[in-house]
Here is the input.
Amino acid sequence: MAEEKQPQLQIELKPELAGGTYSNLAVITHSNCEFVMDFVQMLPAMPKAQVASRIIMAPEHAKRLLFALQDNVQKYEQAFGQIQLQQPQQNKEGRTIAPFNIKKGEA
Here is the structure.
């Protein structure tokens, strides 16, 4: 009996998405049926951070993403060395925010 080959998944990357979207902050919330991940662009001297992209996943897919990220970070660190994290800052509610040391610039 010959083994049946699974059809290979074809993934299309549209040109308008190929450049990606920059994000330096993620805000993650969840309910009993979904995880919501807002990817944010927080830039110095800008009064507001902008949500660049929102991804909504089922809990099972969020856990698969967690495992995939852990695997990729481990592979990255094996190839390039340990990723050093800056000490996070705390906002008024005690939540961790992105480490931005904003200093006033002069022109």
Notes: Strands lie at 25-30, 35-41, 50-57, 89-90, 96-97. The chain has a mean pLDDT of 86. The longest strand covers residues 50-57.
